[in-house]
Structures are given as C-alpha cells and as structure tokens.
Automatic annotation (TrEMBL):
Protein name (database record): CoA transferase
Entry's Gene Ontology molecular function annotations: CoA-transferase activity
Organism: Mycolicibacterium poriferae
Pfam families per UniProt: CoA_transf_3
Alphabetical UniProt keywords: Transferase
Source species, domain of life: Bacteria
Cited PANTHER family: SUCCINATE--HYDROXYMETHYLGLUTARATE COA-TRANSFERASE
InterPro entries for the chain: CoA-transferase_III_domain, CoA-Trfase_fam_III, CoA-Trfase_III_dom3_sf, CoA-Trfase_III_dom_1_sf
Length: 373
C-alpha cells in the first residue's frame, strides 16, 4: 500500500522549481495567481506593507485560502530603503506580479521601465481593473460583472440582473495573469505584461460576443439559466430538488429521451426551433422523480447531468480535493502533474521571511568581493 502522506512531494520537484516570483498583491486576483504558481513549485515572496496586506483583516481563513506556500517580507515601498530592498529582490527574481491601481503601480516603481535597471530579464505583470493606461476607476469583481454585461445576461428573464455566488472575475483574471507571466518567462525576455479584469471578462464572453458582433444577436436571458443554443440545457425542477441537464447532441438526446419516455425531436435543429415544446415535455418528465434519482439513472447512460448541490454537499462528495495547510483545510490545486504532489504549507505570518533580504544582501556582497579579487 502506498503510504506516502497526502500532500507531500512524490518523484520530482515542482515544474516551476527554481523560479522566483515577487507579489505585491491585495485581496484576491493577484494573490490567487501567485498561489497557483507557488503550488507548482515556484518560490513566491509576498511583499507586504507595514501592517500587512489588507486581506489579513478579512479573516484568517480568507487569507489562508489565497496565500499558502508563500513567503512574507514586509517593505515600505514608499521609502528609499524599501525601494532599494525591492531592487535587490528584483535582481534575483524572474517576475513581479502586482494588482493595484495604475497610478499606485507607477508611483511605487513597480513597472518594467522602473525595474529593468536591476534586472533586464524581469517580467512585470500589472493586474488592474481597466489596464495600465485605463485610469484609476475602482474595479471590483461585482463592478466588472456589471460593466461587461455579465450581470445583465444572468438571471431569469423577468427578474433582476444576477451575480454568481463567488468571485468569478477575480479568479479568472488571476489565472490569466499567471498564464501571461509564464508566457513571458518562457520567451526569455523581460518586459511588461498588462492584464485587466474588464478585458478578461469580455474575452470570456467569446461566443456571446461573437454572436452579437457578427450576427447582431444580442444576448437574452432564458428561464432557469437555459443555454442560448442547446435545448434542453438548463436547470429543471424535479419532484425533489433541481437538476442540471446539458444535452448538446443527438446521441445524448436519444439516450435521455429513451430513459425519460419522451418521443420526437430527434435533431438539434428541431429541438432549438421548438424550444418551448421540448422544455414542456422534459419538465413534465423530470417532475416524476427526484433530482438525485434522475442523476443516478442518467449518468450510467453517459448523459451530462447533476443534481444541484450546496457547497458543503459538493465538498463532502469530493473529499480528495481537501488538503491541510497548517491549521487550515483548503481546496487543493486543480493542476495535477504526474510524479509531483505539492507540499501545502501554511500562509506566512507577516514578515516571517524578513531574512530573505539579509541573505540577498550578503550574497550580493560576496559576489562583489569575488569579482573584485
């Protein structure tokens, strides 16, 4: 039996071992980006202001969920001493990721143009609301959902605009920023990477935006979150609970219709053209059994289906995704690489790794002495 403890390294170092990334991040998007990289083996140094990054004030579990596997160094970047220490870190790092207002990023000297004197190869990623040249308007997750059309296309047709129950904009932008950072490192060139919350969300509206730009088809809301192309693909009320059913092609429909006792509508085109009729018969059929039973009946047929679960229910159903990081239970990295299992370390205490600066200074002094001799 494999007795390797859960959450320990297996055969190889992480794929990003040897990569040092600096983070000047606040709240969610930036810290989430660098945590994903830290989980893959990168050394991430979180640079915090005196008093700590603001998300430390939200809750201990909030901070832990976004900052595991990092080091913490406290620097006052408004001071000459803090900027000098930052330069020493930049000289020995591969990338810096920062999410702040553009004016603050420039004022604190956190751009490539300001830092290239310390390291021509440094990759500087600016994660902002509207781009480095997009101004300083406050940009938070819900604001961007409203600004990009996401809220307007979400919810029932006769109801108000709706927001999802989690930070979809921040998380999506964090992942995109991590991708941009790695792409520029792989290129072998230093430089500025510019990622904005607004642009990421508009990009993720891909086929919705394309339908409007090319066909003039503005998004519309359908009841129960129904898909604009596929029918039936939405939530349904059952005899007990709600069911998500996603029929994308005719083979799925044939299998579902056979189990549900429905006749007709054999093609995707016919189902789309006769949407209301299809939904009426599907709704009536699904009302004859519970969501849990429908899932149990339809999954063995290969049909995309799930009963609607709460988060506690979803976590209870997938205990393998929960790992320990210090005293906190967290959801593990979604990236699984053969031969590598992250070691999930607790989020750092404020300035826990202050000696990193001293070590770099000693290293630089030693290198200078060797060169002089």
């Amino acid at each position: 039996m494999d007795e390797t403890p859960k959450g320990t390294a297996v055969n190889s170092p992480g794929p990003l071992a040897g990569i040092r990334i600096l983070e000047v991040g606040v709240m969610l998007a930036g810290p989430y980006a660098t945590m994903m990289l830290a989980d893959l083996g990168a050394e991430v140094i979180k640079i915090e202001p005196p008093g700590g990054e603001i998300s430390r004030q939200v809750s201990d579990s909030y901070f832990a969920s976004l900052n595991r596997n990092k080091q913490s160094v406290c620097l006052d970047l408004r001071s000459a001493q803090g900027r000098q220490a930052l330069g020493e870190l930049v000289a020995e790092s591969h990338a810096l990721l920062v999410n702040m207002k553009p004016s603050a990023i420039r004022r604190l000297g956190l751009t490539y143009d300001a830092l290239r004197e310390f390291n021509e190869a440094i990759v500087c990623v600016a994660l902002t609301g509207f781009g480095l040249d997009g101004g300083d308007d406050p940009a938070f997750d819900y604001v961007i959902q409203a600004a990009t059309g996401v809220a307007a296309m979400t919810g029932d047709p006769d109801g108000p605009p709706t927001l999802p129950g989690y930070s979809s904009v921040d998380n999506s932008t964090g992942l995109t920023a991590a991708l941009g950072l790695l792409a520029q490192i792989v290129s072998g060139r230093g430089g500025q990477v510019d990622v904005s919350l607004r642009d990421v969300m508009l990009s993720q509206l891909n086929y919705r935006a394309s339908a409007f730009l090319n066909d003039g088809a503005a998004p519309r809301r359908y009841p129960m979150g129904a898909h604009s192309y596929y029918v039936p693909a939405q939530l349904f009320t059952t005899a007990e609970g709600y069911l998500a059913l996603f029929i994308t092609h005719d083979a799925f429909w044939a299998a579902f219709a056979g189990e549900a006792g429905i006749e007709g509508f054999p093609t995707m085109a016919e189902r789309a053209a006769r949407r209301d009729e299809v939904l009426a018969v599907v709704t009536a059929a699904l009302a004859r059994d519970s969501a849990a039973n429908w899932e149990a009946r339809l999954k063995p047929l290969g049909i995309p289906v799930s009963a609607v679960r709460t988060l506690p229910e979803a976590l209870a159903a997938t205990p393998e995704v929960v790992v320990s990081a210090g005293r906190f239970e967290l959801v593990r990295s979604p990236i699984r690489i053969a031969g590598y299992e992250p070691v999930y370390r607790a989020a750092p205490q404020l300035d826990e790794h202050a000696d990193v600066i001293d070590d770099l200074a000693r290293s630089a002094q030693s290198a200078h002495s060797s060169h002089s001799s």
